[in-house]
Amino acid sequence: MTKLVELTDVGLEADGNIILERISLTLHRGEILTIVGPNGAGKSSLVKLVLRLCEASRGQLWRKPGLRIGYVPQKLHLDPVLPLTVARFMSLSHGRRLSVAQALARVGAERLAERSMQALSGGEMQRILLARALMMEPELLILDEPAQGVDVHGQTELYALIKQLSDQLHCGVLMVSHDLHLVMASTHRVICLNQHICCHGEPEHVARHPEFARLFGRPELTQLAVYTHHHACDDEHHGDVRHVG
Ligand SMILES: Nc1ncnc2c1ncn2[C@@H]1O[C@H](COP(=O)(O)OP(=O)(O)OP(=O)(O)O)[C@@H](O)[C@H]1O
Fold first, then answer.
1. What's domain 3-67+139-237's superfamily in CATH?
2. Interface pTM (ipTM) of the complex?
3. Which tens digits make up the pLDDT trace of 35-86?
4. Angle at the Cα of 46 (from 206 to 127), degrees rounded to 5?
5. How many angstroms does the Cα of residue 148 sit away from the middle of ligand 1?
6. Residue nearest to atom 6 of ligand 1 (CA)
7. Domain ranges across the chain
8. Which candidate among 33, 149, 203, 218 keeps its CA 20 to 30 Å from the CA of 114?
9. Which SUPFAM superfamilies does the record associate with it (predicted)?
10. pLDDT < 50: residue spans in the chain
């Protein structure tokens, strides 16, 4: 099982404020790890650390040498009057290994190739961003709130697609989500973050954890029966989360 990323006792500070502390985790190929947490918990900062867009103030961050990462940002800001088709937008990405048509086919969006980027619905836009991230055949897909701006039905479909892609392409997935109950059928492991790791493990475990209930309230728990998670998982095949110190 190929290890992709390992964080050991990582901390992050900015302007004298603690943003993250004592974060230890590993992520392997074929594993989906979801970060949940309230606003300001440090979820995007953790993603930025893994992307090396910022540097840890302490601890160690290891990445597999030459790791190919496909990144789906929280939001894409496009000039509303810029004439840009989906195919043109996708052809602008660097390090491509797939053709535009192949990448669109992977997310079932072939018919959108000639559509204007500005005309896409929220769900279509997220699929196109996902297709773009797949173009360099990533070993690790990083998605920051991939279901933002998508209705509930579309969110469930999108998370199912991410799971399917991870299975097919055997890539690791690190994603941020606000909705544990929507993502639980499509993730192997969950970290509940609030500056530090409050709890972690399989989604059902986190959903029932008192720390999770404290952060998100009881309503989350009552909805979980609908989204029971099924996967034949062998613990050795999924990344673990370790508390250090
Ligand atoms: N460069 C920075 N300088 C100072 N503070 C920062 C910096 N980057 C992030 N922060 C602060 O760190 C905290 C965590 O921010 P972050 O964006 O990682 O949270 P988040 O969990 O992704 O939040 P949300 O769910 O609202 O997107 C916030 O209080 C934010 O204001």
1. P-loop containing nucleotide triphosphate hydrolases (3.40.50.300)
2. 0.96
3. 999 999 999 999 999 999 999 999 999 999 999 999 998 888 888 888 899 9
4. 80
5. 17
6. 14
7. 3-67+139-237, 82-138
8. 149
9. P-loop containing nucleoside triphosphate hydrolases
10. 220-240, 243-245
